[in-house]
Amino acid sequence: MTIFDCFENNIALQKRKPVTAQKTGRLRKAKRVGKYLNNIKMGLFNALFGKKKSTLQDLDEKNDDFIAKNPIAQNDENEMMRNASKLMTSGKFSESLDLYKKLSENYPNNKGLYESQIGVAYHFLGDYENAVAYYISSLNNGGDKSMMDDNIWEAAEAFSKLESQEKGSSTTNTTKLIEKYWELFPNGRYAKKAKKHLGK
Question: For residue 185, which phi and psi values (nearest 5 degrees)?
């Protein structure tokens, strides 16, 4: 799940516009930015929990670097998105959450993208049930299926571990989000793990 998807989405939107002599330079720049963002790979969760671990501070620095290289926001939506992203990488998850909710309401064409970021904020706040709810909504509104596979599993697994620690034993409640994952992704990347958790 990546907060940098917001930037990629704007780049993709820019690429769909008809090419004119004035836009050619911006398209070349968008391709460079796209390559830069693709190097981030699976984004925030992969960066934090994947093989090449990063910290939020590392991602905050990358975010600052991206904005420094692209100092002018394309429009009001892009400006809000930059602010929400900066809040997220700065660890101000509640503030980021509020801004992404406004983005989701004000820009319904990118609702799936912004709802995924709302899910990320909830995840970092430890509210895994709301995180999964927003990831599912993101999926239903055009969010990236592969990323939602990863994100829903991450939240479901974290919820299960937290519930097990709090309850001291395995209960139906500990697996409810894993059940939700299984319903959505019976052939997903983590289906074998889900199956094992559920005793199927």
Answer: -130, 65
Q: DSSP state, 110?
A: G
Task: Please state, in angstroms and rounded to a whole number, the distance separating the CA atoms of residues 8 and 35.
Answer: 10
Q: What distance in Å separates the CA atoms of residue 139 and residue 160, rounded to the nearest whole number?
A: 22
Does residue 3 contact residue 103 with C-beta atoms inside 8 Å?
A: no
Helices (H), 71-171: 76-89, 93-106, 111-124, 128-140, 145-167
Question: In tens digits, what is the pLDDT along the chain, a chain of 200 residues?
Answer: 333 443 334 333 333 333 333 444 444 444 444 433 333 323 444 444 444 566 778 888 887 888 888 888 889 998 999 899 999 989 999 999 999 999 999 999 999 999 999 999 999 999 999 999 999 999 999 999 998 999 999 999 999 888 877 765 555 577 899 999 999 999 999 999 999 988 87
Q: State the sign of the Cα–Cα–Cα–Cα dihedral 100, 91, 40, 33.
A: positive
Q: Which residues contact 165 (CB under 8 A, 6 or more apart)?
A: none
- Decide: helix, strand or coil at residue 39: helix
What 8-state DSSP symbol labels residue 169?
S
pTM to 2 decimals?
A: 0.73
Best CA proximity match to 113, nearest among 6, 185, 29, 1? 6
